Amino acid sequence: MVHEALGSPATTSPTRDMVWIPGGRFRMGSNDFYPEEGPARWVEVDGFWIDQYQVTVADFDRFVRDTGHVTMAEVPPEAADYPDADPDLLVPGSLVFRKAPGPVSLADYRNWWSWTPGATWRHPEGPGSTIEGRDLHPVTHVAYSDAVAFATWAGKELPTESEWELAARGGLADAVFTWGDEFAPEGRMMANTWQGAFPWQNLLLDGYAGTSPVGSFPPNGYSLYDMAGNVWEWTRDIFTYPAGPSAKACCTTPVTTDEPGSAIPRHVIKGGSHLCAPNYCMRYRPAARQGEAIDTSTCHLGFRCVIR
């Protein structure tokens, strides 16, 4: 199935390329993996429509052309929000993954994350990179407010965490992955994730070193694509963590209290990304979750929308 770019909201059906998820009661979370996913609990969710695909570069380009929207990555950060930051770094930019040359300490995210001036949704790897040929890739380098602005333009909203997780499960109660309990059934790669030792060895068994066109991997039981891997997805819910604010993050930026901007609210992101690897971040599962600062944009974070 090939995804086409979203047309103007005024000229397309509101539920084009969306799937109806029946409401119901399901067991959310997990007690078997990372502590922030627990405890597993029963949750009731009303029915809703959800995008079949992650919002693409082409979709976002149409939105920007229609509205003139400027993303957070394209404006300088407010100095007042980062009183201890190096003033030279308070320029437009975003976080870009840089593959390490060899094994490195997994305790320091700076071994693979680089603040890159000039990195935006139009320049995913920084100045000199383009979105040419990536129309059907998920848009990246979008902060929370950018995702909300797009959703409003499209006549939609961002999903809650429980809505997103119910949709991701695809009707499979308590399954580890969106497609079942086996990571690669009969050797078939089911999602765009990292194979090998993160952050330096990517075996590319799935065929992609970065993002992949939406719909490149099999859908789940609700005919939704990329509910695991490719890019993380914003939700509307504030992130809470039972162990407190100093929780360990994986391939996202860390949740800490001693860095510039640490007081900025965080929202739940779901689904994992092409940077999630078993040796470090097995978060390409429905129950997996992380918190991301609402002013943050990265090369592996996007979104999809819902209509209630």
Automatic annotation (TrEMBL):
Pfam families: FGE-sulfatase
Gene3D superfamilies: paralog of FGE (formylglycine-generating enzyme)
Name of the protein in question: Sulfatase-modifying factor enzyme-like domain-containing protein
Annotated source species: Salinispora arenicola
Domain Sulfatase-modifying factor enzyme-like: 15-306
